[in-house]
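Subject: design request, 768 residues
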């Protein structure tokens, strides 16, 4: 079904895969010897990156994007940061959508206040504003902005438009701020991995099935981590572009940097249908292209899939699951017990009836599930059928008003409603726990993007826990037709009868504010009472003293655990208010500990040289211990910044949200220590918020409450970052001092200066 090549491969004439160790075959096929360095330039990715690089150095890219996109959880903070940094107008098209905090039901008026702030920002700075319920962020970008050879940056992790020939990257808000200030996105040239598609999907197999098969094969071994996935091979043309979009958006769950697909006449037709045929050009790899690896996919062998809780990589064929229900579900229950920590119960074995698994809820929604093709196939499967009047329910969210309108015209919405489904407007809520939360101990099957713990809205800390399994819309429809009995789409007939989509952008023309290049500098930003400025951040001192405020030994820590989604989204425009939720579902005591450390730092800064810190007398012992370390005899409190620190094995899997880092920072965070960062985007967020992205090879020989002293950190930022001595001092300085070795992966000159300045805002202020 899916297989991975060991080592690099050459792709010859777009169809022949030659492992690097058999490079001699390249000459037999082309008459020329294989030249790896030349062939590396033959990828589609190379040509696009080169076109957007602002220097001649292709090893250290400095990229400028064609356009950007943010939604209403992220754009307030981005605009506030850019404004504080000196921005006067949006220099490139910047789309502000309102598809996350769409429902204005939590926290009074604050969600709608954010929307009004966004509209006022679009008018003042020259932006594009998409009101609530009109479109989810990525569908709008597909329909209106993506095009062949372009690059788009978004403050949402699922910023992926590769199937339209666009290399798109999801990053934290700081990286978008840099583009707004006409700076660059700096990244080392990434590895490029071919995803060679062969054959064609069988009827009933959908884009989510193909995506889950790939994710299951590559996530755990990091095969494509921080690389570009380049989709090639004859199988690309076996799928419509709308279908390809559904595969492409899920590449985020592999932890790749970006994606790109070869384009063809169907790509042209898609763009022409959306009145943008001029954005088409054929993209193909060169006659000989070199890739750092290859994921081979025989599309004809991909069966309907399911990703069980609690990660999109926890994949099984639905048939395989049904044949081994007891054993597989027992593993999920065991993981649920670990995640809940005894605070709530989640069971699956009690949902088994005979040889079937009964589910309580289903959702087809968002940038992955709400596409026209998915919803239409689900509607056709449910025509004349009944979801039942029991506990099972189905909700469907078309991804945009144009998609919704055409589904209405073609009768699909009536078919869904008559079957008992609830049809809603464009909204991303089910993807992050702000819409259609299932019942306690319920299992929800969803064609959405993620099934991380608590992402469906449950709160184990309150004794409430549910879970999500990811499936394709076709198998969800088949399950709904059976009243909630888990069913593979292959158990039904009648697939692949999708009528052609007819795009009508009247709703966009009538409701979307389009003001790029027409900003009014004299206009005022509209602030609601919850919208707050970023607090002041201090610059880095010569030495730092870190208080360990959380120690997480889970294999992976997601951004959802660092700062929960769901109801917290309403506070994303209030830095201090949101910070109260930091690690609340993983380490509820963290905020209190971090505040204590922050209070010590405030006292240090305000009481003067040599002052006693009465709030923490143990610091006398800590500094006495520091002064016994060779070369640190004269260290003083006034040249040693004190802050909180989080240790996690592998933090940052999942969302691009910068608040996973900024919340730590506003509470006084100075650093993270980990074995590795799960994603580049989380590490970038840590840096942009002025925290040190430490790593260490050894097991952490320190505990919560201990202090870690790092001398000469500003000087270390001038070096190679490979070996940074630090000292564990215990809780009061009386324990034996233990030396540990930290390091940081390479940082650009700008990133080093950002950390020294204390955050991106300070760095930009210092430049002007």
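Subject: RE: design request

Done. Sequence follows.
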């Amino acid at each position: 079904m899916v297989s991975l090549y060991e080592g690099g491969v050459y792709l010859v004439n777009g169809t022949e895969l030659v492992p690097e160790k058999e490079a001699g075959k390249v000459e037999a096929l082309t008459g020329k010897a294989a030249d790896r360095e030349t062939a590396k330039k033959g990828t589609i990715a190379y040509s696009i990156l080169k076109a957007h690089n602002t220097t001649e150095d292709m090893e250290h890219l400095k990229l400028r994007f064609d356009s950007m996109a943010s939604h209403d959880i992220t754009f307030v903070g981005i605009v506030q940061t850019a404004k504080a940094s000196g921005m006067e107008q949006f220099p490139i098209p910047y789309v502000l959508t309102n598809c996350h905090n769409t429902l204005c039901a939590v926290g009074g008026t604050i969600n709608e206040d954010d929307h009004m702030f966004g509209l006022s920002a679009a008018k003042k700075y020259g932006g594009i504003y998409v009101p609530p319920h009109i479109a989810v962020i990525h569908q709008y970008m597909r329909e209106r902005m993506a095009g062949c050879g372009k690059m788009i940056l978004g403050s949402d992790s699922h910023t992926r438009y590769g199937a339209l020939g666009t290399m798109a990257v999801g990053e934290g808000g700081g990286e978008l701020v840099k583009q707004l200030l006409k700076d660059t996105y700096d990244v080392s040239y990434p590895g490029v991995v071919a995803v060679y598609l062969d054959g064609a999907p069988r009827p009933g197999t959908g884009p989510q099935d193909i995506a889950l098969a790939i994710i299951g094969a590559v996530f755990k071994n990091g095969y494509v981590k921080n690389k570009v996935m380049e989709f090639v091979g004859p199988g690309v043309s076996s799928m419509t572009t709308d279908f390809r979009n559904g595969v492409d958006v899920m590449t985020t769950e592999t932890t790749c940097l970006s994606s790109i697909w070869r384009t063809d006449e169907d790509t042209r037709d898609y763009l022409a249908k959306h009145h943008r045929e001029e954005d088409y050009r054929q993209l193909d790899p060169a006659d000989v292209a070199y890739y750092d690896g290859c994921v081979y996919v025989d599309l004809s062998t991909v069966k309907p899939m399911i990703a069980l809780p609690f990660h999109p990589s926890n994949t099984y064929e639905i048939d395989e699951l049904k044949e081994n229900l007891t054993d597989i579900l027992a593993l999920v229950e065991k993981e649920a017990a670990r995640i809940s920590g005894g605070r709530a119960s989640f069971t699956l074995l009690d949902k088994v009836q005979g040889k079937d698994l009964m589910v309580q809820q289903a959702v087809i929604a968002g940038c992955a599930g709400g596409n026209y093709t998915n919803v239409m196939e689900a509607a056709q499967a449910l025509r004349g059928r009944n979801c039942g009047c029991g506990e099972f329910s189905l909700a469907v969210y078309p991804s945009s008003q144009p998609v919704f309108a055409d589904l209405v015209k073609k009768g699909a919405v009536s078919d869904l409603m008559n079957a008992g489904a609830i049809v809603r407007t464009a909204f991303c809520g089910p993807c992050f726990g702000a819409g259609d939360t299932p019942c306690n101990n319920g299992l929800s099957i969803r064609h959405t993007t993620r099934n991380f713990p608590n992402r469906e809205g449950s709160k184990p800390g309150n004794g409430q826990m549910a879970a999500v399994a990811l499936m394709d819309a076709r198998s969800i429809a088949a399950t709904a037709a059976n009243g909630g009995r888990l069913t593979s789409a292959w158990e039904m007939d009648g697939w692949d009868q999708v009528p052609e989509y007819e795009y009508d952008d009247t709703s966009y023309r009538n409701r979307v504010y389009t003001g790029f290049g027409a900003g009014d500098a004299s206009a005022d930003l509209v602030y609601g009472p919850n919208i707050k400025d970023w607090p002041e951040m201090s610059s880095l001192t010569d030495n730092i003293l870190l208080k360990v405020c959380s120690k997480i030994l889970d294999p992976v820590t997601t951004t959802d655990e660092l700062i929960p989604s769901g109801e917290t989204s309403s506070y994303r425009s209030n830095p201090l208010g949101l910070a109260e939720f930091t690690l609340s579902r993983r380490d509820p005591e963290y905020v209190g500990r971090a505040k204590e450390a922050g209070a010590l730092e405030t006292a240090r800064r305000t009481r003067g040289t040599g002052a006693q810190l009465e709030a923490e007398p143990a610091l006398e012992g800590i500094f006495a211990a520091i002064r016994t370390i060779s070369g640190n005899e004269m260290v003083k409190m006034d040249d040693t910044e004190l802050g909180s620190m989080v240790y996690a094995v592998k933090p940052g899997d999942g969302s691009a949200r910068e608040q996973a880092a900024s919340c730590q920072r506003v509470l006084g965070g100075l650093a993270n220590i980990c074995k590795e960062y799960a994603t580049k985007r989380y590490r970038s967020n840590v840096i942009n918020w002025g925290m040190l992205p430490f790593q260490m090879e050894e097991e952490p020989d320190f505990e919560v409450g201990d202090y870690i002293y790092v001398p000469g950190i500003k000087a270390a930022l001038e070096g190679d970052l490979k070996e940074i001595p630090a000292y564990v001092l215990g809780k009061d300085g009386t324990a034996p001092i233990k030396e540990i070795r930290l390091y940081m992966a390479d940082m650009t000159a700008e990133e080093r200066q950002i950390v020294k300045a204390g955050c991106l805002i300070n760095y930009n202020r210092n430049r002007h």
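The longest helix spans residues 590-606.
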